[in-house]
Write the structure tokens for this entry.
Amino acid sequence: MKKSIINRIIRIILVTLYALLVMKLVDLGIPETIKYISEVPVHIFLFYYLLFFNLNVEGNLFFDRYLNKKMPWFDVPKKRVFVQLSVILLWTFISIGLPFLAWYFINGQSLIYPQAPVVIFIGSIIFLLVFIGVSIAINFFKQWNTSLLNAEYFKQEKLKADYRVLQNQVNPHFLFNSLNVLISEIKYNPKTAQDFTRKLSKVYRYVLQSKHHDLISLKKELEFIDSFIFLHKVRIGDALEYVVNISDEIVHKQIPPLTLQILIENAIKHNIANEENVLKISIESDANNTLIVSNNLQIIDTVDSTYTGLSNLSKRFELLKKDGFTYGKQEEKFVVSIPLISA
């Protein structure tokens, strides 16, 4: 509020100085033979002249603010230009033209210097066009900046929503198969069934908690994967080999939760795993703080690969604005490179 009052005072001072400048230009054009003779004293005339000039500016600024609400520049720019110019001309005629007309009749239908009203009217129009033009430019860029901020806000909200959808797509994949295995173990191997239940509970707790995180430490993800691998080894036994070889320096870096689960699940789903064809999965780190997940290729021909899980992962890294996620066949292996994110 205080800033608004200060701005208004500064504006009145600037407008007053300009009005005096216009009057000085009129005075320079008046022949020396013409003297000020009027029913209205000069100081009274000067007071009302400055009053109406400032009223002209304040009124136009008021209409400008009103039009910003009712007719924003971004919505109808052509119509706004036409209406704005019409308002400037009309209000200038009302606030400048009509007072001079009244002064004309007060002075017995005569003017001391007929060119004076014309010069002042044109001067006020020029000033308003410049002054309101600056205001328009400021309002335009404010609205433009606001629209950019709103666009960025909605974009971020959409990215967050998209990210949650991607997370939800990977959550239930392993659960139903695990329940079938559990039923079998309860019947034939009760001791293993207890361990299996504890691991399954740990895995599912992690899955539920991960919904609330965009990133999670590699250490926690690997602890989760140990339990996840246990569930599969109970089902397929020694047909699955799992090796982890990463440096201690990177365990505190972060990745999107359930990243490794998707990769391991894909490897198990699309490759043969039995005693004669052992599926070997490895997780390693390199010198570039990149995680390398690979498995030997023993493709199951009857399973169609849509790469949906990998596409989801790629999208997740894209939403996180992190480059470096790649996947593909390399010789006899399928290799995925995962860029690690600093905490």
